[in-house]
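Homework help board

Subject: predicted structure for assignment chain

Our instructor gave us this sequence and asked us to write out the predicted structure in token form, then describe one feature. I got the tokens but I'm not sure how to describe them. Can anyone check?
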Amino acid sequence: MAGASTMLIALAALFWGISGGIAGILLDSGWDAAVVSFYRGFVGLLFALGWLLLQRGGHGLTSRPLWFWSVVAGLGVAGNFTFYFLSIEHGSVAVAATLMYCAPVFVYLVSFALKLERPTAIKWLAIALVMVGVVLLTKLYAIGASGLSLMGVVTGLLAGLSYAMFIFGFKYATPHGSPSAILTIAFTVLALVLLLPADIPQAVSVINAPELLLFVALGILGAGLSFLLYVVGIKHAAPALASMVAMVEPVTATLFGVAVLGESLGVIQMVGMGIILVTVTALSITSS
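My token output:
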């Protein structure tokens, strides 16, 4: 099951990367970041709720651990979305993305501390290689002092911590209930938290907007379908491995920018992308 779980997590990360490109289109069209994030979670909630209602039993909604860890996962996703956009606002996309994708470091450190993983030289090397790949892919080395700010760095790190938080939340919720129940609780928390900073009049206007289908696609790919695959996959995968495999997301987002948004990709970025993919693939094979 380990190999199949890795593929499901990688596929979820692929959809997250595509949804990041869709979100970029919506943001460029003038939509508020909080509104985009809210609809990503809200459509995901409708997806999960519909699936839950079709189930006849075995959802586990009477389990307290299920509720606790699902709420933790929902808060983690909400924090990840919010802090990531704040980091971009106060710094740059490159800085925000690099700091957010420090998540594998946080996950491994927690896993080592809880003795869920045994620290080895290979694992430390894998962490280092992935971080080098992310730095090259985001071109962080080209960012001057003007592109850095304390708020941008702090919120970027908080986005990474939130990323790690939702990984552990989903991992420990899965033994106590169905994926549909976990996602319904997590996305309800997410929608409630992200509704607070959202521009309510603009959020209502989405219903009649020409970009409505993009919002629906964002919710299905970026939340409903992707997190379904992720929750099913992480049931048989260690949190640390899941965090590394999820590094497929920045690679997909970059390729989406090149193929759809007309962005360019330099040689150094391609090297960084290759380092990430090779490292993640090697780690997945050895873990399986």
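Reply (TA_rk): Your tokens look well-formed. For the description, you could write something like this. The CA atoms of residues 61 and 256 lie 38 Å apart. That's the kind of observation they're looking for.
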